[in-house]
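retry 2 of 3: previous attempt timed out while embedding thiamine diphosphate. Reduced batch size to 1 and resubmitted. Inputs unchanged:
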Amino acid sequence: MNFIETKSRKKQTAVTDLEKSKLTSKDAERLYYFMVLTREFENSILKLYRQGKIVGGAYTGNGNEATSVGSCYALGKNDYLFPMHRDIGAHFVKGQTPLQLYLQHLARGSGLTRGRDGTGHYADPELRIFGNISHLGSMIPVANGVALASKSRKENAVVLTYIGDGGSNVGDFHEALAMASVMKLPLILVIENNQFAYSTPVSKQYACDKLSDRAIGYGIPGVTIDGTDVLKVYIETKKAVERARAGNGPSIIESVTMRMHGHSAHDDASYVPKEMLEVWKKRDPVEQFDKKLFQWEMLTDELKENIYNEINRELSKAAEEAVNEPYPHGAEVTEGVFAKPWLCQFNHT
Ligand SMILES: Cc1ncc(C[n+]2csc(CCOP(=O)(O)OP(=O)(O)O)c2C)c(N)n1
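retry 2 succeeded.
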């Protein structure tokens, strides 16, 4: 992953944003790598979907890359991640490989859910990744539970989870935050405000100015940030992580961006005004960071081409390997799905 030979190229102008983030040029390389990897991986998932190879739905986080990558980059190895359906970038940052994610999305027997689920509902306990739970909002109380357990065990770990603008209106969101705030749980909740919940625009979802204002009701910090700027997302998440780790409780970060694709691959998003997409296209998270790296002379055309080629080679190899893996065996279909019968027997005497 040593794509950007920054030593000779790094210029003093690279300071500003990067210095503010206290990240190194090596970190900048990694952030760029993860955003490009996410974009290219999801593009390839859409291709596989159109070829009829994806069993379930195909969701992308196109427009959300800076949010998922920048926020998860603020986590340490022992921290917990509860990602949502737009957060493939966070999966990669936390350590999952393209092969694992292809196997999962292609519902192969060797995938994380052993072919029981073809889309986003998979955990990776070794990496401390849990979720995602399909029912919007329901994952936050579970993240609370893990935060409480971790706090009780004095692990000094934090829990990062996400919710969409739509999901933030569900009862569980409020109940979980009430609990997390009074118990000072080490929870960071990123609200990915990407302007639509399926076909419902934000104007029909809430009447407040900013979703981060909801934090006031729980007596916790809440900020609204430009969710297309990976360094800004990182900086605010890092602050929330440090706050949670110091025992000062949860925070809300509203990361404002745009869902550039339909809800999932079957949705052409014809209800989204074209002009709106044009405006947001100019703020594309990957291209924005790309431009900064060019400005800072950390990226050249040649280097960029190499990065894309290298990533696409890695992805093609992993996709081919995954496509050639078998589906789960029919005889094992109930394994890991139903509780063992003897665990369900109650003694009523
Ligand atoms: C409680 C609940 N209601 C409805 C759904 C169906 N559903 C899944 S994703 C989604 C849209 C969610 O929008 P938002 O929370 O804004 O996230 P986005 O998909 O825009 O990133 C809906 C309605 C669900 N999974 N759970």
